[in-house]
User: What shape does this take?
Amino acid sequence: MKAYVNDIEVRTYYGAKVKSVVLAYCRAHNLPLKLDDVEVRDAYGNIIGLDGSLRANSKIYVKF
Amino acid sequence: MTALAAMFLFAACEKEQKIYVVSTNDMHANIDNFPQLAALVDSLRTAHPDLLLFGAGDNRSGNPINDRYAEPAKPMYELMNKVGFDLSTFGNHEWDGGVIALRNVLTWAQFPFVCANVTFDDSLQMPNFKPYEIFERNGLKIGVIGGIQLGENGLPDFHPKNAGGSHFRPFTEVLPEYLPKLREECDLVFLLSHCGYEEDREMAEQFPELDAIFGGHSHTRVSETQLVNGVLVTQAEAKVKFVTLSTFTLKKGNVIDKQMELLSVKEFPKRNEEVQAMVDEYNDNDYFRTVVTNNTTPIDNYESLGCLMTDAIRYTTGADMGFQNPGGVRYDTLSARPVTLKDIFALDPFDNEIIAYTLSGEEVVNMMKSCFTSDHGPIYCSGCSYSFKVSDEGEITDFKVTLDNGKPIDPSAKYNVVMNSYMSSTFDYEHEDDGHSTFRSSNELMLEYLASHPEIDYGTTHRVTEE
Assistant: This one.
């Protein structure tokens, strides 16, 4: 399925959690794969947990 | 009605009335936060004795102390009973133990479950479950309808084999069957939703006759009042870190104000001592010393343990091949001795979900090769073995994969392949199939595998050859 991280499309498996999508984004952009201090927000500005579920085409925003 | 009664009713309607709801969601059996949760709820009940306490699903799954208890998930329900939950809806993880385990949960819970978009086969005789519940507080009626998310396959996010006897319909299709009746009968109408925040917002847009949606599933931390089309939409992240206190003010039968406040459980300065004693007792048990198999030959390397891990995910999913990244194998030795649950969780502390793919042989080989860069070493495998050479320049050459039937992998054939979610996200190779979660974790599959393997013998198992 597709999801968007910082408005960039990320392809991932169906049923992916937030953590998997952020890791896929990190891999694609050669960023470290450590998510200890990452802050993830949804399209409405709410913080979301790394174990949260995502729907296809969800937009999330990460800050490292 | 007597004149006096009519006078009291009129006076009650003239006065502002408040309804308080404390909600949480996706607790995932984080029982260690329950002493603070209980103390916080006790404190709120002192101020608002009639408050309602809701859980928006996924009460279990996430803590082996609870999930692998002698009666799986019972600690969580004993604690929820103790804290005095009034209502819960189902989350997708409520099915993790299958429907019989779900029925046990419904028996233990001293509060009802609501979920309007699921029905069960009559033969299951599911107790303590209904589409909605109506509460009365301060002379007001509060209707609460429950609902759960469905994925593209028409099921919640769980392994389809766990569905047995459960039947689902889209929540938005079911809601119009209940909303008019509840709206007519009740002063407040709420959804207790395990659909995820985005879907909750869409439902608020579609059904403005709702007063509030208390949500779960997406682990969204709604930290201030958000009204969507006039509907309060809220969620308290996950794992009992927070609760939401929502306040509804009514006058003359109309809702004149809705507010919510996110309260930190972790930062609450008090603990309920009785609940603490219960949690201490759950944590102090022999669970991790439970023997799950017997290892007959000493293992002194990561690869052999990787073979065990990949066999477990391959056999239990019925895949053609299973793969494990070397960085995910956290033991390098296992002597010939009984293997305990503690060993299993130490071997694989990440306990990632297992993802299934249909890949061509060429894609499989590219995925395997990508492990050298993505995980800095050769991949561990089941259903095949392979050999390779490393050139003087450090290039991987002569990469040859042989299937268990002795034939070389066919680049154009399709294979069912399983791997963990970390590999799915971090391995860089071209593949057509995006894959799908099995909604089962690696440790869950390992324990299922070992349940049918009372002895294991991996001491001399090697499937990777560097020539």
User: Anything to note?
Assistant: Strands of chain A lie at 2-5, 8-11, 39-42, 47-48, 59-63. DSSP finds one helix and five strands in chain A. Chain A touches chain B at residues 1, 11-21, 23-24, 26-28, 33, 42-44, 46-49, 51-56, 58 (CB under 8 Å). The first strand of chain A starts at residue 2 and ends at 5.
